[in-house]
UniProtKB/TrEMBL annotation:
One Pfam family from the record: PaREP1
Protein name from the UniProt record: Uncharacterized protein
Length: 122
């Protein structure tokens, strides 16, 4: 996949997560939220030549982005995404918590999208 494909996938997964939540499938909504966050990180990592093939690589990329931007919320929201990923397996979160998590992921994408787009010609 190329960086632009990861970016497109990020927005699509967030939208799918919201649909799953309306359907009452909290587990799938959670996993789509995780996927949306992971895909935007992968977009930037791909663009910059950073490894992004595993969870550890994604966390390292998020640390780099936090250090680069000075925005501590980037790390915190990625932890929310990780919690959503865990919820896919454990199914312990309620609808409201997952909805709020998806809102956080939307904010995460809004923060990182300009960084991803800055590397492409207009």
């Amino acid at each position: 996949m190329v960086a632009r494909d990861y970016l497109t996938a990020s927005r699509g997964l967030l939208a799918q997560g919201r649909v799953e939540l309306v359907r009452g499938d909290v587990r799938q909504a959670s996993e789509k939220g995780w996927g949306a966050a992971a895909q935007i990180v992968k977009a930037i990592a791909e663009q910059r030549g950073w490894d992004h093939r595993g969870h550890g690589h994604l966390h390292a990329a998020v640390r780099r982005l936090r250090d680069e931007t000075g925005d501590q919320e980037i790390r915190r929201i990625f932890q929310v995404a990780n919690s959503l990923h865990v919820n896919f397996y454990e199914n312990w979160e309620d609808t409201q918590n997952v909805a709020e998590g998806l809102d956080d992921i939307e904010r995460f994408i809004a923060k990182l999208e300009p960084i991803a787009l800055a590397g492409w010609p207009s």
